[in-house]
Amino acid sequence: MYNPIMENNWLEIADEAIDTTQIEQQIYERMAKRNFQLYNNSECPKEIARKLWQEMIGNTISNKLAISLETCDIVPRNYVIDWRIPILGPINALLRRLINAEIRRFLSSSLEQQSYVNRQVYQLLHDLLEENAQLRREIESIRKTQKQVEHHASSSILS
Amino acid sequence: MQVHQFYPSLSYDDAISNQIVNIQDILLQLGYRSEIFCEQQPFLAKRQAKQFIKYVPYSSPDNILLLHFSRAYSSQIMTNLKKIPDRKILIYHNITPHTYFAGVNEIVFESTQMGRKQLKELATITEAGWGDSQFNCHELMENGWTNIAVLPIIFNSKQYVIRPESKILRQYKDKTNILFVGRIAPNKKFEDIILTFYYFKQIHPTANLILVGSSKGMEKYLAYLQTLVQQLKLSDIMFTGHVSGAELVAYYQSADVYLSMSEHEGFGVPLLESMQFNVPIIAYHNTAIPETLDGSGILFKTKNHVAIAELMAMVIEDKHLQNKITAHQQQRLPYFFPDNIEVKLQKYLLKAN
User: Fold this and answer.
1) Touching check for A44 and chain B: CB below 8 Å?
2) What is the mean predicted confidence (pLDDT) over A93-122?
């Protein structure tokens, strides 16, 4: 639910009359005593917020991939040969079934193979996009830290 | 020498419009002729402004034009600025990084992206850049300015000497109230405030969370926040929208703690307002916030919502601690008073002259 262990000096109170370490310690003691409840008893609130963001706003991976896993399958599995016109209809249907069977014999394995490749590529793209998003977050975090360091270094020059 | 100011549009109550009006007051006191020019005639503003297309009679190479910059200028404005012979000084109020608006508002996303690109271009047509904070000045440096100075936001405490809205005072009287003031925007991290309030509510079950600020243009983000409140089964959270001066004063007077989880602030005027109303400030340490507070208030470096909820509770329960914090905040506030900023502005203008 939350990580009670935090690094020291996460609080900054410049007033020398206030003992920041003591305040941090008191907070830890209060946290340890408190028995926080999860109102819905299922998920951490932070996780709820994160998932809701992804659902409502975030550029989700599935949104970025304009295709779905289902469209990767290009085998015509639901092709039905039927007839309505009497006499000619059944003859027509028989001929089409024969031709269809022949075509499927040499095309089927290729289509199945291609569908398999499509699914593999889809999964690979999905994983790459996730990794890309994670790396972007990490880069952003590093940039922020770098900016803060540079800002502290240059603030003495500016003043 | 005349010193005029430009901003795309002036509104009634936002921090930048107030800064423009306050600067004009100082310029007039110093004896300069000073007008405010906008791209569009403001519908409702505290001060009269003229349309920038009528700037030509005021234009002169001896004059200084202060360009207030917080969002992209139109291409028409950029073209006109390059044409006029006036000496131009940029006053940079910061532009929120465009990445915060991805998925929230594509127009704002592009506009903020364009604005940051324009910064580099404006460096070539201005002779100096003044930032509200050293943080803003640092961004100016990164974009090519070498002649920079800090001109802080002018805090005119007289603007807050108004009768507070009594209905709000009655509603929140004798209750524990957590306050945040700022437009509803993703960089302000309202979801973190809500998550902290989730735990705080278990410490003080009758507490209220008051979120003051307009959500104009950020409807999608507001919908996310409201859905989050529902899913967390939280109550007593008020999204006030835009408020009047009297309502704002009432909210500050009712607040027990001002909590900021914002991850990007070019200055943070509500921090000064909290100081004015003796509301202890607890804020996330980032961007210009530590500089605005300059050692006052309480800063935290890690967003542990549980720990921050306990910290808020401690500050509210311990009057001695609270008084120490607000006393320190009161010592910081005069730095931003008009008299102090007038001295800086006069010095910068003399240097420019």
Assistant:
1) no
2) 88
Each residue's pLDDT tens digit, B301-313? 999 999 999 999 9
Distances (CA, A) of A44 to A1, B145, B169, B222: 5, 46, 35, 21
CB spacing of B306 vs A36 below 8 angstroms: yes
What percent of chain B stands above pLDDT 90?
Answer: 88
- Calpha distance B232→A150 (Å, rounded): 39
CA–CA distance, B6 with A20 (Å, rounded to integer): 45
Are the beta carbons of B275 and B329 closer than 8 angstroms?
yes
Whole-complex ipTM: 0.88
Q: Give CA angle at B24 (B19, B25), nearest 5°.
A: 100
Chain A nearest CA to B174, separation (Å): 24
Q: Do A31 and B228 touch (CB under 8 A)?
A: no
B72 — phi, psi (to 5°)?
-60, 140
Torsion angle of C-alpha atoms B61, B17, B109, A146, degrees rounded to 10: 80
- For residue B271, CA distances in Å to A42, B171, B303, B307, B317 come to 37, 24, 19, 21, 21
**Spans of all domains in chain A:** 67-158
Edge-to-edge strand list for the sheet holding B298-300: A11-12, B298-300, B281-284, B257-260, B177-181, B208-212, B237-241
Report the alpha-carbon distance of residue B321 to residue B332 in Å, rounded.
Answer: 17
Q: Which residue stretches of chain B have pLDDT < 70?
A: 42-46
Q: What is the spatial distance between Cα A111 and Cα A106, in angstroms, rounded to a whole number?
A: 9
Structural domains of chain B sorted by starting position, each given as residue range(s) with its CATH number in brackets: 3-154+337-352 (3.40.50.2000), 158-334 (3.40.50.2000)
Which candidate from B138, B224, B298 shows the least CB-CB separation from A56? B224
- pLDDT, one tens digit per residue, over A14-67 is 988 899 999 999 999 999 888 776 554 567 899 999 989 988 887 555 555 556
> Quick check: B311 contacting A, CB < 8 Å?
yes
Residue range A80-105: average pLDDT? 85
